[in-house]
TrEMBL record:
Stretches with biased composition (Pro residues): 101-112
GO cellular component: autophagosome membrane; late endosome membrane; lysosomal membrane; plasma membrane
The name this protein goes by in its record: Lysosome-associated membrane glycoprotein 2 isoform X4
Name of the gene: lamp2
Transmembrane segments: 276-299
InterPro entries per record: Lamp2-like_luminal, Lamp2-like_TM, Lysosome-assoc_membr_glycop
Organism: Carassius auratus (Goldfish)
Length: 314
């Protein structure tokens, strides 16, 4: 009786072990086939047989995930076309340096001179020579030197006036002298025509040098005796190759002065009005007259034609 009970108990235990083994084996799924969307292969976990009484341990099932092996590529560094720029130090041009000649300092333009009034009196205190002018002198010390320009200051406290009165065929003269400039003008009377025939100039320069120039064969400022010579516009006269004088508002009368004033003036060519103004005015007047005649002719012709048409219609 006891033996039967032991056998029965052993049978029950073996049946339980076999049943437990069947449960464990059936609960583990077969190797999962890879999804057509995945490239990973799932390996089945091994089953573990626990000889335990009345307990079975089931291995966890691995869920089938549609996994995609995504490969993350490291960001590529853009290839820059780098240029190895080499900054070269500026090279100093090797030139044969030559010293350029220093240009002479440019002087500011000399303004026009002040116009002065001068007169020479005879022994009886009668005015025998009248002159009104502004004088400017341009001269050079040598052929290669540049011209220097000076104005004569007519102020009585600067320039002294002297001269001689001409009569009986003798010459008259005007001498203007300052600390810097001395100019001597000589007028002659030939056949009742006077003219400037000689000029002498002396200039004391600040460096101690003295400039001297003269011309005794001039024929300037010519007019009839008893009248004056006038030239208001600026005039330039070459006295020598080293001396030029400029006159401004010139009027002189070296002979036959009456009542201490200038007589009728004879104008220079520069002051005379342009001779072409009169022909131009006459030409314009004739052109206007011709246009008026043509217009009158056209208007009269149209009127005559209109009146002829009216008579024909009637």
């Amino acid at each position: 009786m006891a033996v039967r009970g032991c056998v029965t108990l052993l049978f029950i235990l073996l049946s339980g072990i076999v049943y437990a083994d069947v449960l464990v084996t059936s609960s583990i799924p077969a190797a999962s086939t890879p999804s057509k969307h995945t490239s990973a292969v799932t390996t089945p976990l091994p089953t573990t047989h626990h000889n335990t009484t009345n307990s079975t341990t089931e291995a966890p099932t691995t869920p089938h995930h549609n996994t995609t092996n995504s490969t993350t590529e490291a960001p590529t560094t853009p290839h820059h076309n780098t240029t190895n720029s080499t900054t070269e130090a500026p090279t100093t041009a090797h030139t044969n340096a030559t010293t350029a000649p220093t240009p002479p300092p440019t002087s500011s333009p000399v303004p026009n001179p002040t116009v002065g009034n001068y007169n020479v009196k005879s022994d009886n205190d009668t005015v025998c020579l009248l002159a009104k002018m502004g004088l400017q002198f341009s001269f050079k010390m040598s052929e290669n030197a540049s011209f220097q320009t000076l104005n004569l200051d007519p102020s009585p406290n600067v320039t002294e006036v002297n001269g001689t009165c001409g009569s009986g065929g003798s010459d008259s003269s005007l001498v203007l002298k300052s600390d810097e400039i001395t100019v001597h003008l000589v007028f002659t009377n030939v056949s009742q025509k006077f003219r400037l025939h000689a000029l002498m100039l002396s200039v004391n320069l600040t460096n101690g040098n003295v400039f001297n120039a003269s011309n005794n064969n001039l024929s300037l400022w010519e007019a009839s005796v008893g009248s004056s010579y006038m030239c208001k516009k600026e005039q330039s006269y070459n006295i020598t190759d080293k001396l030029t004088i400029n006159t401004f508002e010139l009027q002189v009368q070296p002979f036959a002065v009456q009542n201490n004033k200038f007589n009728t003036a004879e104008d220079c060519v520069a002051d005379e009005p342009d001779n072409f103004i009169v022909p131009i005015a006459v030409g314009v007047a004739l052109a206007i007259l011709i246009i008026i005649v043509l217009l009158a002719y056209v208007i009269g012709r149209k009127r005559s034609q209109t009146s002829g048409y009216e008579q024909f219609d009637s």
